[in-house]
Amino acid sequence: MPVSELAARLGLASVLALWFALVWRARPALRQPRLRGLWVTVLAATTAITLFQPGIVAGLTSAGTDVHTVSLVRNLIGVLSAGLVLLFVIDPRRTPLLRRSVAVAMAAALVSLLALDLLRADRSPEGMAAVQRPASAAAAYWLILVVAHIVGDAVALVVCWRYSRRTAERDLVWSLRLFAAGSVLALVFWCGYLCHLYGLAPGLLPYLSLIMGAHGFLRAASLLVPTATAVARSASALRTTWRLWPLWRDLVTAVPHVALASPRRTRLQEVLWPRCPPALQAHRQTIETYDALLTLQQYVQPDAYEKAHRHARRAGVRDDCLASAALAGAVGQARRAVLGGVPPSDPRPLPGVVHGSHETLLGIARMWPAMTDALPCRDRTSPAQQS
Predict the structure, then answer these.
(1) Distance (Å, whole) CA 132 – CA 190
(2) DSSP structure class, residue 200
(3) Is 169 left (phi over 0), alpha (psi -120 to 50) or beta?
(4) Cα(349)–Cα(298) distance, rounded to whole angstroms?
């Protein structure tokens, strides 16, 4: 595949990713002041990148818009996005004068581009061959356009990387670092673009378009970090629900007072149609399983853990799973004692359950199918039980 075709496809894909990220994050971003600046900055950059794509320009020109107008609008929005980047990374509480200076410089750059476009006759040639060139062929126009982007991206790189090393908020760290990585690619693009405009590297534009496409994906990713984190947390919670469900179902059936709701018929229903958000459901089932284990300690036989441990070892259970298997065997015997009507006795704490962790419960759940019936259960008339 030719590089130019690959660049066009990558560019279109990055534009779609950017617009998806903007639409998806619009509502939460616009509600939070600390995220609003990032969202508006990416919006301006996305508009400029969209107007850089030959396919988009071709569609606009076929609708009656001339190439020069598209190029001029793209250049103005690009400089605006560079200024917004600076305003986004500058702390308004510490440097209000610097923010005002940036705003004035951005306005001056925009006015200068308009003036150079209107007053000079040496505009870039029309036609689809010039869709990715600036609106004017004046050297001053090129310098204002490129320097504005280079300054904005260089400052964004330094500030975003510095702040990402100071904050402890994971989502913000990754958003800032992805934004900084996008700024690195943007710097490479604009330095190469200036060389291309001055004829120093005439065949460089397709490769620069590839860099711009990758830059677009990084900008989209910087917006979608909170969404990715939420999806990862939901997936982890659903995985916990799925793995814990057989143990949870059997224990809350034996000790129903610990559960807020009865188990559904299958765990697929529990995962696909949760009765509460996934994280809350996983947390609830974990707590209910733990409470059921504490209750079932009143029905544990004195030597149940040791017997289950020996049974698991004879069955070939791996050494790192022996403790979980022994717990599963002892709890399985206690559960059947409850269901068989055996009266409770003094609680016999099981190793690792009193201060049981999330991993402990999942370990028991993993061994539960193999160990739940490993030990025989004494009935209610057993002399040992009555004593």
Answers:
(1) 13
(2) S
(3) beta
(4) 8
Q: Given phi > 0 = left and psi -120 to 50 = alpha, else beta, which region is 199?
A: left
Assigned token pair, 209: 């378009």
Residues with pLDDT less than 50, the chain: 127-129, 381-387
Tell me what pLDDT residue 354 has: 66
Measured distance CA(245)–CA(267) in Å, rounded:
6
d(C-alpha 122, C-alpha 140), whole Å: 12
The whole-angstrom separation of Cα 90 and Cα 96 is 9
Residue 64 is encoded by which pair of tokens?
């009656």
Coil, strand or helix at 354: coil
The rounded distance, in Å, linking the Cα atoms of 184 and 204 is 18
pLDDT digits (tens, 9 = 90+) for 209-222: 899 999 999 999 98
Tokens at 247, concatenated: 């143990």
Tokens found for residue 322: 């022996």
H or E segment to which residue 295 belongs: helix 278-296
Question: Residues 177-184: contacts with CB within 8 Å, 24+ apart?
Answer: 178/218, 178/219, 178/221, 178/222, 178/225, 179/38, 179/218, 179/219, 179/222, 180/156, 181/218, 182/215, 182/218, 182/219, 182/222, 183/85, 183/153, 183/154, 183/156, 183/157, 184/153, 184/157
Distance CA 360, CA 324 (A): 7
Distance of CA 93 to the CA centre of its chain: 29
